[in-house]
Amino acid sequence: MSNLAVKVNQRAQEQTTRQSQPQSQPKAMPVKRRLPITLGEKVLIVLFVLGLAAASIHLIANSVASYKASMDIQKLEAQVDAQGKTNADLQIQVKELSNYERIWERAKELGLTLNKNNVKVVQD
């Protein structure tokens, strides 16, 4: 009987140690559960992302528009400079062609003569 009592006693001790082991171990910190994202928060996040994307696209579109405008301005300035040079060249040519001696030579080629009685002097 003593052998049987020892076995029963050992089983009882094993059961108590099994039950006491989880209690004797240090408890792990409870895991904080993340609250699910509510529908309103999801809508706000989506609206924020869409607004950010729209603002980015608007900024890029404005940059492209200003770049194109700048290019057009530069082209027009180049055309104005070229036209200014052409005008200056033409003014020089007008002065050369309106020279009195040249006009007199051209008139002689065409058979015109100078009649001093028909000449009137006009002053500005």
From TrEMBL:
This is Cell division protein FtsL. InterPro entries: Cell_div_FtsL (IPR011922), FtsL/DivIC (IPR007060). Keywords: Cell cycle, Cell division, Cell membrane, Membrane, Transmembrane, Transmembrane helix. It is a single-pass type II membrane protein. Essential cell division protein. It comes from Metabacillus sediminis. Residues 13-26 have a biased composition (Low complexity). The keyword Signal does not apply. It comes from the Bacteria. GO terms for biological process: cell division.
